[in-house]
Amino acid sequence: MNSVITIGRQFGSGGREIGMIVAEKFGIKCYDKELLARAAKDSGLCEEVFEHHDERPTNSFLYNLVMDTYSFGYNSSAYVDMPVSHKVFLAQFDTIKKLADEEPCIIVGRCADYALSDRSDLIRLFISGDEETKTRRIMERFDLTESQAHDMCVKKDKQRRSYYDYYSSKKWGHVNTYDLSINSSVLGLEGTADLIVKYVESVEKARND
Q: Phi and psi at residue 100, in whole multiples of 5°?
């Protein structure tokens, strides 16, 4: 496998788990939360800042001002007047590019498809799911009631959509944004991963022909 795969996903769709299964099948790395630690190390920004801003845009001037006291890097003249949320995005943006340059890999969320849009080896996926399936998965994962799990799914997807639409020039979850969109509720996590493997293999074969 010689491609870089990005996965956008609805909360509760199993996108992260599917990414990990696909990565194991191909023998490559899958980056999700691991990306935050790498971005913090590369940029010199405090890892806590990345966790606070993870796929959550904020326009609060006061919040940015307070959180900026945690920032130790990215303080050159080009960044000093920039809100910390923008610093975090740019730091992740740079790290995503570095990871993709190092080796074939899978990167989950965080506008990775936008950051890597100039790559010819990019495959952009989006994982969705039925509301019932997503809610049940979140109920089990966090020990929540059905109502609580549903509300969490709605809230998290709203945050991810706002983050993606704010920082990229495309629309989160829109069919034209991705190469392949899959409802994981139809085939399940393993079945969806198998479908992705076949799709990636077919794409790479077509590219090489």
A: -65, -35
The CATH code for residues 4-40+95-204 is: 3.40.50.300
Model-wide pTM > 0.85: yes
Q: Which two tokens stand for residue 94?
A: 């740079």
Please check whether residue 122 is in contact with residue 6, taking contact to mean a CB–CB distance below 8 angstroms. Answer: yes
Domain residue ranges of the chain, discontinuous segments joined by + = 4-40+95-204
- For the stretch 122-155, pLDDT in tens is 999 999 999 999 999 999 999 999 999 999 999 9
